[in-house]
């Protein structure tokens, strides 16, 4: 379209004009905006004014700058999400869900939840839940005296609120690469700039964190155990090295997302040192009590807790006290927690058994921690996924979890813990066959 539709003499006016044209459909996704010089000359403004307008539009997610390709109206890019693929006739082995048979039945606890109604203005955290959560979190924070607790509607809700109070659009956030899908969505939909930090078998890498800090990140999100999708957990040595790097940045917001805490068999090692001033440890109940239990506990420093509290005001956005009471009833029931412990053993045992099957068939695989396996197929994973679909399986290609690490595109994330032994054997054979059919002649010789 002609650039004559754009009006304004200040950066804000020009940006508002473009946004109105996009909203009305007169500018379409992918359409090029006028070059800076041409638009500045027509509007009779300084070129820096147009540059500032385009920067505002970029921060709002309205446009994207493509270098020599100019500035174009942003296209709404679909982001991958966790969970089942709906309306598929294939057996889904990439969903990342816990086993529904291992999620505790809440019916008995629900019948005991009678109590007085909660009214506007009351404390946002149930006293019994707060007492239990303090015992849960205190051993794993560097400064228990400074610990403050907040309850949110799940771990993603906690991270969204933590980032919103600390950042503005286009601020940089250090994310593990490959990364949990919800982490990618949270950062991108918030308008923040993800900076990739590679992950190896010991978790977030030291050099990767240093490089992210050099790029001016304002927050770091780290998964200390059962990193999704790789299954890596921080070792004590790696955590100490990361703490040493962060020691020079005490006011950087550091978020530890310990999502698998009740199911993991790995010890917790923190990257948050005693001198760090802005931090949060987030633990959700969704992996062991079920995804519909939208509740997470955040332990944080007092200032971060105060800012979170401003976004969790009584009467508007508190987490239901009925849900809080149900959660505390379940986690304080010895029978329930014994079942949770058995579930953790089940996930570990089934993942290890499947990894052994794959390795025996010529597809080396190590079982990390978590609900899924991260399988190296020694080449692009998409063709492997397509071959598995023809065999009745729906797997997840690693490129969905990638920020910049192209090696992840050679991986599959497989969720196999619900498979019976015969089905697990068939899937392992089908994966090996699909990998073999996809490999180049040289790779086939190497594998054989």
Automatic annotation (TrEMBL):
<dbReference type="Pfam" id="PF00155">
    <property type="entry name" value="Aminotran_1_2"/>
</dbReference>
<dbReference type="InterPro" id="IPR036388">
    <property type="entry name" value="WH-like_DNA-bd_sf"/>
</dbReference>
<feature type="domain" description="HTH gntR-type">
    <location>
        <begin position="8"/>
        <end position="76"/>
    </location>
</feature>
<dbReference type="InterPro" id="IPR051446">
    <property type="entry name" value="HTH_trans_reg/aminotransferase"/>
</dbReference>
<keyword id="KW-0663">Pyridoxal phosphate</keyword>
<dbReference type="InterPro" id="IPR015421">
    <property type="entry name" value="PyrdxlP-dep_Trfase_major"/>
</dbReference>
<keyword id="KW-0805">Transcription regulation</keyword>
<dbReference type="Pfam" id="PF00392">
    <property type="entry name" value="GntR"/>
</dbReference>
<dbReference type="InterPro" id="IPR000524">
    <property type="entry name" value="Tscrpt_reg_HTH_GntR"/>
</dbReference>
<keyword id="KW-0808">Transferase</keyword>
<dbReference type="InterPro" id="IPR036390">
    <property type="entry name" value="WH_DNA-bd_sf"/>
</dbReference>
<keyword id="KW-0804">Transcription</keyword>
<keyword id="KW-0032">Aminotransferase</keyword>
<dbReference type="GO" id="GO:0030170">
    <property type="term" value="F:pyridoxal phosphate binding"/>
</dbReference>
<comment type="similarity">
    <text>In the C-terminal section; belongs to the class-I pyridoxal-phosphate-dependent aminotransferase family.</text>
</comment>
<keyword id="KW-0238">DNA-binding</keyword>
<dbReference type="InterPro" id="IPR004839">
    <property type="entry name" value="Aminotransferase_I/II_large"/>
</dbReference>
<dbReference type="InterPro" id="IPR015424">
    <property type="entry name" value="PyrdxlP-dep_Trfase"/>
</dbReference>
<dbReference type="GO" id="GO:0003700">
    <property type="term" value="F:DNA-binding transcription factor activity"/>
</dbReference>
<dbReference type="GO" id="GO:0003677">
    <property type="term" value="F:DNA binding"/>
</dbReference>
<dbReference type="GO" id="GO:0008483">
    <property type="term" value="F:transaminase activity"/>
</dbReference>
<protein>
    <submittedName>
        <fullName>Aminotransferase class I/II-fold pyridoxal phosphate-dependent enzyme</fullName>
    </submittedName>
</protein>
């Amino acid at each position: 379209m002609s650039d004559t539709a754009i009006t304004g003499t200040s950066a804000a006016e020009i940006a508002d004009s473009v946004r109105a044209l996009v909203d009305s459909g007169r500018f379409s996704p992918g359409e090029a905006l006028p070059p800076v010089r041409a638009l500045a000359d027509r509007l009779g403004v300084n070129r820096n004014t147009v540059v500032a307008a385009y920067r505002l539009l970029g921060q709002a997610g309205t446009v994207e700058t493509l270098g020599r390709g100019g500035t174009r109206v942003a296209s709404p890019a679909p982001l991958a999400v966790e969970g089942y693929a709906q309306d598929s006739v294939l057996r889904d082995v990439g969903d990342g869900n816990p086993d529904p048979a291992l999620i505790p039945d809440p019916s008995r606890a629900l019948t005991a939840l009678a109590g007085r109604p909660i009214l506007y203005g009351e404390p946002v955290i149930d006293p019994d839940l707060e007492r239990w959560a303090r015992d849960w979190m205190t051993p794993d924070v560097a400064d228990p005296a400074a610990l403050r607790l907040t309850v949110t509607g799940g771990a993603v809700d906690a991270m969204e609120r933590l980032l919103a109070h600390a950042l503005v659009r286009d601020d940089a956030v250090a994310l593990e690469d490959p990364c949990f899908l919800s982490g990618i969505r949270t950062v991108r939909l918030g308008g923040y700039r993800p900076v990739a930090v590679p992950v190896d078998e010991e978790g977030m890498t030291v050099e990767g964190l240093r490089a992210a800090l050099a790029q001016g990140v304002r927050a770091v999100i780290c998964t200390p155990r059962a990193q999704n999708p790789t299954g890596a957990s921080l070792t004590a040595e790696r955590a100490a090295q990361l703490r040493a790097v962060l020691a020079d940045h005490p006011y950087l917001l550091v978020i530890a997302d310990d999502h698998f805490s009740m199911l993991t068999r790995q010890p917790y090692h923190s990257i948050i040192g005693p001198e760090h001033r802005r931090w949060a440890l987030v633990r959700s109940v969704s992996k062991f009590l079920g995804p519909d239990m939208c509740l997470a506990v955040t332990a944080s420093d007092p200032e971060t807790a105060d800012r979170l509290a401003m976004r969790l005001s009584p009467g508007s956005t508190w987490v239901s006290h009925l849900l809080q009471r149900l959660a505390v009833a379940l986690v304080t029931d010895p029978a329930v927690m014994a079942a949770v412990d058995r579930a953790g053993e089940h996930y570990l045992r089934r993942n290890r058994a499947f990894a052994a099957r794959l390795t025996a068939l010529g597809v080396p695989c190590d079982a990390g921690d978590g609900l899924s396996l991260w399988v190296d197929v020694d080449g692009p994973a998409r063709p492997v996924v397509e071959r598995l679909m023809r065999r009745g399986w729906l797997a997840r290609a690693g490129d969905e979890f990638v920020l910049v690490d192209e090696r992840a595109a050679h991986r599959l994330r497989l969720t196999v813990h619900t498979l019976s032994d015969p089905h697990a054997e068939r899937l392992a054979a089908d994966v090996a066959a699909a990998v073999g059919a996809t490999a180049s002649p040289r790779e086939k010789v190497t594998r054989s």
